[in-house]
Amino acid sequence: MSDFSLGDMVQIPYKSGIYIGEIIEDRNEKFLVKTLAVVKHPMQGDLHHPKQVENVLFHERKALSQFEKVNVLKDVVTRYAGPDLDYGESLKNAVEQYSDKLKRKDTAYNQEALRALASVEKSYYHGKYYENGTHHNK
């Protein structure tokens, strides 16, 4: 039995990223969660062969979009009681934290991950969250 209710704010892991969201539907073993903020940006590369660059398909992974809905197993959902976060600012912070982490060590994986992260970051800045480096919501 879950101690969560519809409308509760939760933190969820999803495909190597971590997000803040709102429970909008109970689906038996899963919750449908609406994404509201990004805590940790998803890893770049092949999740089945982490930190490898040779003989793997190196994926560019974007963070979940604002208000994107995802099904998440109930046993990985935790309550979120922190401050309300702005999606655009949280995304920017998550990208910066991941980039800083990758820059600390010069490896082939980190170089390729930084390239991939820069590519997905361009789509964020040219999308609805940032324009010319200035944040705005729509």
CATH class: Mainly Beta
So what's the oligomer here? single chain
Q: What count of structural domains? A: 1
**Overall pLDDT level:** 88
CATH fold-level name: SH3 type barrels
Radius of gyration: 16 Å
What shape does the CA trace take?
A: globular
Organism: Ornithinibacillus hominis
Protein name: Kinase
GO molecular function: kinase activity
Keywords: Kinase, Transferase
Architecture overview:
- A hairpin with a 2-residue loop joins strand 2 and strand 3 (30-40).
- Helix 1 (87-103) packs antiparallel against helix 2.
- A five-stranded antiparallel β-sheet has the order 4-3-2-1-5.
- Helices cover 25% and strands 28% of the residues.
- It contains two helices and seven strands; from the N terminus they run βββββααββ.
- The protein is α+β, with helices and mostly antiparallel strands.
- It has one domain: SH3 type barrels (Roll), CATH 2.30.30.
- Residues 131-138 have low confidence and may be disordered.
